């Protein structure tokens, strides 16, 4: 009898684990798999402190890159998805607080999305610009550390009045929505790739892997790169700016 009861409990627990939505105010249990409804994808806060989104084959689709640092993961009451480091430090944030986010969806299409009702605020898939939008994950006007730029793709400010692009000529440029440059790294005909690195440094490299421009913000606690509505490009450590383009329009 006890064996049958245990089997029923385990089966019921499995059904709970396949829930597609995680609602705000919920901590993610460590090493628990949060499955998509079709059970082809799952989100897990691993024992190593990394929050990772996998497909059923065990291949990583997205990660918070917080291994060795994360001690707690939470989809908070304020709608922010956060991985905390020791002493309440922030190792990763979706920067969705105050935007009325109310659910984190583990979707059947292999995308992890934070919604405010039916409005997507953040997503794990970072598609490039197709002329109608600025790509999943870029709608809030910011980038997280670890982002590698794709030539020609545009990362817009939230109000869509400004965008940052790594141009085909190798220059990293902030422009207004008319295409007029506001700021540039001055790496035209020199830049081969651009990256907002995990160490918080924004860098343009040449074809020999030499830095031809850098924000000099490595290891200063940078948590995001903001393309702001006021036309300023800012690297923040929490709420404190550590670098800016100085191009704000009043």
UniProtKB/TrEMBL annotation:
Stored Gene3D superfamilies: Bulb-type lectin domain
Domain Bulb-type lectin residues, every copy: 19-127, 140-248
Signal sequence bounds: 1-19
Keywords: Signal
Matching InterPro entries: Bulb-type_lectin_dom (IPR001480), Bulb-type_lectin_dom_sf (IPR036426), G-type_lectin_kinases/EP1-like (IPR051343)
Name of the protein in its database record: Bulb-type lectin domain-containing protein
């Amino acid at each position: 009898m006890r064996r049958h009861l245990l089997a029923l409990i385990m089966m019921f627990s499995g059904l709970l684990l396949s829930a597609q939505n995680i609602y705000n105010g919920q901590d993610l249990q460590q090493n628990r798999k949060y499955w998509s409804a079709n059970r082809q994808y799952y989100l897990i806060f691993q024992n190593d402190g990394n929050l990772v989104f996998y497909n059923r084959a065990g291949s990583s689709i997205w990660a918070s890159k917080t291994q060795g640092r994360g001690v707690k993961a939470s989809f908070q009451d304020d709608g922010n998805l956060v991985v905390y480091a020791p002493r309440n430090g922030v190792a990763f944030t979706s920067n969705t607080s105050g935007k009325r986010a109310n659910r984190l969806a583990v979707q059947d299409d292999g995308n992890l999305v934070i919604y405010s009702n039916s409005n997507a605020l953040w997503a794990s898939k970072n598609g490039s610009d197709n002329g109608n939008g600025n790509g999943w994950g870029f709608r809030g006007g910011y980038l997280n550390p670890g982002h590698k730029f794709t030539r020609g793709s545009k990362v817009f400010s939230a109000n869509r009045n400004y965008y940052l692009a790594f141009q085909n000529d190798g220059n990293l440029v902030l422009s207004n929505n008319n295409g007029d440059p506001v700021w540039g790294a001055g790496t035209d005909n020199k830049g081969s790739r651009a990256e907002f690195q995990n160490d918080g440094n924004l860098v343009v490299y040449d074809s020999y892997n030499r830095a031809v421009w850098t924000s000099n913000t490595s290891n200063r606690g940078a948590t995001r790169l903001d393309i702001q509505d006021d036309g300023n490009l800012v690297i923040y450590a929490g709420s404190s700016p550590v670098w800016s383009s100085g191009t704000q329009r009043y």
